[in-house]
Design a protein that fits this description.
The complex is a heterodimer of chains A (276) and B (302). Chain A contains ten helices and ten strands. By secondary structure, chain A is α/β, with parallel strands linked by helices. Classes of the chains: A alpha/beta (276), B mainly alpha (302). The complex binds adenosine-5'-diphosphate and magnesium ion.
């Protein structure tokens, strides 16, 4: 199994949709085997970032105006999306985007579209089922009929089927029960640590993402507003005010969940607030 | 049902003959509908040029199987190969540029393609009509006072085999899976490393090959091969819609249902009723079930 994560470098990236600038001179780095999060409110340009990396802008009439993107030192900017997946980038798209009329197993197999080692694909499928045992009885179910949590597991499993060197997750937590989101984040940490896969997590749920990531960026209106280690960002008053939202309900409910593997400094300087 | 209209003939052998004729016609509709369904299901394009594709197939069959006088199987192989190349040409030359454009813009482009094919056939083959093909066995036999032509049986068999092949292809091959994934969600498919461009190219090639098969078969049962045979596209349209436009099996059932209904309308009400009845059936089905009899409403893209 490929174990070395590749580094991703985004340099001076400017992206436009028609006349609208969605990303403006953005610089972001994911070190090899790193775990990085990009935070930001709705419309900050997070999904545009993912589309730029994976060459899907053309489906949205967007284009890169300036800048560069390299993976493991090689430019991937402007290459076709199948080539980028082959180079090692997998994604869990925003809103999961499963193939609703395909079965769970077929969805997973689609994640291996870029692979030519047929035997290895079966192995990865089995590995995924060990990661998500609850998917095993659902293999022949139509994916569109699953619950949100089950769908997100399929989406993560599908991305892992390509044995990525870099895994990108766009708003994994959207619309899911906190317990499931926690499980998924722990899994990402595990994959990051055991397989060395580089991970880039796009999130609105800042408190959770900062617990798991090593480095973090805050994107606002298409620009990088703040960057630093996750610890630095947790301590940053502006981040606390804007994104850890002083007792904001999302955060409160996550903090109330007991996490067996959580780091001691997980909640930074702010004590977790119990749910009422 | 139509018999209940009144004092039309209730002679069983006449009705049996109408049923057999209807099934034969329906099998042809099914071949055409299959072409509609392939393209619509995979690329979301309503291809109004499919009748012209079929006409192209019929004329090429004339060229390779009659004029060039090739061995039957070699001729069919060459015919289908040439059709495949034309399918790729339709994609890489035209349709590929339309990905992401509006539904109606693309439908209009297919009308443009239809016009181009008609014009090219007129230029290269001229306006004179040609005798229909006679390469398949021409005889017939009697069943219960009705005549069954061998050629109709062959058409039936070929259509069934095509549907079975497509079913196996979509269900059990990797490319088939990728085609269904692109049909479900093109962006997610691209994000997984599936190349939608290749999938679309394969789809147009497959539709064109099916039109080659259709042209070869229809060329055997039409009155003559001339510029009017593209109308089979429009005539088969109710069959495709009744079947649901997204279901391979539906295109067969839709084809047979419409074919039989048309023949009974033809036999009991007169030829002029054939098409009005077919389109009425289509409207009624659409009113009751907007997705057609077998078309499933796609699950929401969640
Ligand atoms: N297809 C599009 N056409 C035009 N503008 C778009 C399109 N997609 C996104 N945008 C704009 O780009 C900006 C960033 O959007 P997006 O990347 O989706 O943000 P986020 O994922 O952070 O919510 C927004 O202002 C949005 O309106
Ligand atoms: Mg987004």
């Amino acid at each position: 199994m490929r174990s070395d994560g590749l580094d991703l470098r985004i340099e001076d990236l400017t992206v436009v949709y028609g006349g609208v600038t969605a990303l403006d001179t953005v610089n972001i780095t994911v070190p090899p085997g790193g775990f990085v999060t990009v935070l930001g409110a709705n419309g900050a340009g997070k999904t545009t970032l993912v589309r730029s990396i994976t060459s899907l802008l053309y489906l949205h009439k967007g284009r890169v105006r300036r800048g560069g993107i390299t993976l493991g030192g090689e430019s991937i900017l402007g290459r076709k999306s199948p080539d980028i997946v082959k180079a090692g980038v997998a994604q869990v798209p925003e809103g999961r985007k499963l193939f609703p009329n395909l079965t769970v197993k077929e969805n997973l197999l689609c994640g291996a579209a870029s692979r030519s080692d047929i035997d290895g694909i079966d192995e990865s499928l089995e590995q995924n089922l060990e990661l998500f045992p609850q998917l095993r009885p659902l293999l022949s179910q139509t994916a569109g009929l699953l619950s949100g949590g089950e769908q997100q597991m399929v989406a993560v499993g599908r991305a892992l089927m390509s044995q990525p060197a870099l895994l990108i997750c766009d708003e994994l937590s959207l619309g899911l029960a906190p317990k499931i989101v926690h499980r998924l984040f722990e899994l990402l940490t595990e994959i990051n640590e055991t397989r060395g896969t580089s991970i880039l997590v796009i999130e609105q749920n800042a408190s959770l993402a900062l617990q798991h990531a090593a480095d973090a960026y805050v994107l606002e209106l298409g620009r990088v507003l703040i960057e630093g280690t996750a610890d630095e960002l947790r301590g940053n008053p502006m981040v606390q005010e804007l994104y850890l939202g002083g007792g904001g309900e999302a955060h409160t409910s996550y903090a109330a969940i007991e996490r067996p593997g959580s780091r001691p400094d997980a909640h930074g300087s702010r004590p977790p607030v119990a749910e009422s | 049902m139509l018999l209940a209209f009144g004092n039309f003939t209730a002679d069983p052998s006449v009705n049996l003959q109408l049923l057999i004729g209807g099934l034969a016609l329906g099998a042809i509709y099914a071949v055409v509908a299959l072409g509609f369904v392939l393209v619509y299901k995979s690329t979301d394009v309503l291809n109004l040029a499919h009748g012209e594709f079929l006409m192209l197939g019929a004329y090429f069959a004339l060229t390779f199987l009659i004029s060039e006088n090739l061995n039957f199987f070699l001729g069919v192989f060459v015919l289908l190969l040439v059709m495949l190349v034309f399918g790729l040409l339709v994609h890489y030359g035209i349709m590929r540029r339309m990905v992401g454009q509006g539904f109606f813009a693309i439908v209009l482009i297919t009308l443009g393609i239809a016009t181009i094919i008609r014009a090219l056939l007129l230029i290269f083959y001229g306006p004179t009509e040609r005798a229909r093909l006679d390469l398949l066995p021409q005889g017939s036999f009697e069943v219960g006072g009705a005549t069954v032509r061998y050629v109709d049986l062959i058409i039936f068999g070929v259509v069934a085999a095509c549907v079975l092949l497509f079913f196996i292809f979509f269900k059990y091959t990797r490319l088939g899976l990728h085609m269904r994934a692109v049909a479900d969600d093109i962006e997610a498919a691209a994000a997984m490393g599936i190349d939608p461009d290749k999938v679309y190219a394969m789809t147009w090639a497959a539709a064109m090959v099916m039109a080659g098969v259709g042209g070869l078969l229809f060329g055997h049962v039409t009155g003559a091969i001339d510029r009017s045979i593209e109308a089979i596209g429009l005539r088969a349209f109710p069959a495709a819609v009744v079947g649901g436009l997204t279901s391979l099996g539906g295109s067969i059932v839709g084809g047979l249902v419409v074919g039989v209904i048309e023949q009974f309308a033809n036999g009991h009400l007169g030829t002029k009723w054939r098409e009005p009845v077919a389109f009425s059936v289509m409207f009624v089905v659409l009113l009751v079930r907007p997705t057609g009899l077998w078309g499933r409403k796609d699950l929401e893209r969640v």
